[in-house]
Amino acid sequence: MRDQLRGRLTELRRDLEVGERRLALLDQERAHLRDTVLRISGAIQVLEELLTGAPEVAQADGEVAIQE
User: Fold this and answer.
1) Measured between alpha carbons, how far is 45 from 32 in angstroms, rounded to an integer?
2) pLDDT of residue 62
3) 63: helix, strand or coil
4) Confidence of residue 53 (pLDDT cuts 50, 70, 90)
5) CA 38 – CA 17 distance, rounded (Å)
6) pLDDT tier at 49 (50, 70, 90 boundaries)?
């Protein structure tokens, strides 16, 4: 009986370690994704402000310049 309990304890400790490592990786992934979303959101905000606040001027190369 004691051997079974020790075996189960070892198995649970191993599972706990694996779970903690996986959770740490997911936390890192979540932080990276949050940063990416914030950068995208900021870029959208800047572009929207540029589009609503300044008239456009077409350039010869096909790009659009913002006239201040």
Assistant:
1) 20
2) 65
3) coil
4) confident
5) 32
6) very high
